[in-house]
């Protein structure tokens, strides 16, 4: 297997976008108790940072969709490289098994 540094076809900017989106997801979730998101929190502070509302609305508009777009962009290459059986087995292990543990 090639290391990441030796692979000239790797799209490094996509890794940077994924890191940036991950930081946005963490900031989004960390800020929810302090912004106008509603919901129930264990510790409730009536003072809210209203500026976070715009941050949440902007994030919610694109970050998860962009993760799905990136995933969909690379899926045909992974399918062609691995073949149907291995591709589906790996997808089931990665996605199917965790779904079994979701509460109904």
What's the layout of helices and strands?
Layout: H1 12-31, H2 51-82, H3 84-100
Helix pairs in contact: 1-2, 2-3
Could you explain how this protein is built, in words?
The protein is an all-alpha fold and 104 residues long. It has one domain (9-100). It has helices at residues 12-31, 51-82, 84-100. Helix 2 packs antiparallel against helix 3. The termini are far apart. The relative contact order is 0.09.
Summarize it:
The protein is mainly α and 104 residues long.
Question: What would the keywords be for this entry?
Answer:
104 residues, 3 helices, mainly alpha
Radius of gyration: 19 Å
Which structural class fits the helix and strand makeup?
A: mainly alpha
Terminal-residue CA separation: 40 Å
Can you count the beta strands? 0
Number of domains: 1
Residue stretches low in confidence (pLDDT < 50, at least 5 long) are none
Strand content: under 5%
- The average pLDDT value, as a whole number, equals 87
Helix content: 55-70%
Largest sheet: none
Tell me, what's the shape?
Answer: flat
Q: How many individual helices? A: 3
Query: How are helices and strands ordered from N to C?
Result: HHH
């Amino acid at each position: 297997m090639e290391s990441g540094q030796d692979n000239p076809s790797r799209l490094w900017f996509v890794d940077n976008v994924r890191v940036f989106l991950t930081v946005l997801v963490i900031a989004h979730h960390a800020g929810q108790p302090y912004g106008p998101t509603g919901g129930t929190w264990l510790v409730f502070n009536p003072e809210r940072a209203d500026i976070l509302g715009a941050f949440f609305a902007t994030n919610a508009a694109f970050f998860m969709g962009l993760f799905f777009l990136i995933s969909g962009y690379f899926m045909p290459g992974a399918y062609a490289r691995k073949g149907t059986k291995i591709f589906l087995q790996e997808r089931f292990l990665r996605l199917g098994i965790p779904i079994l543990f979701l509460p109904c």
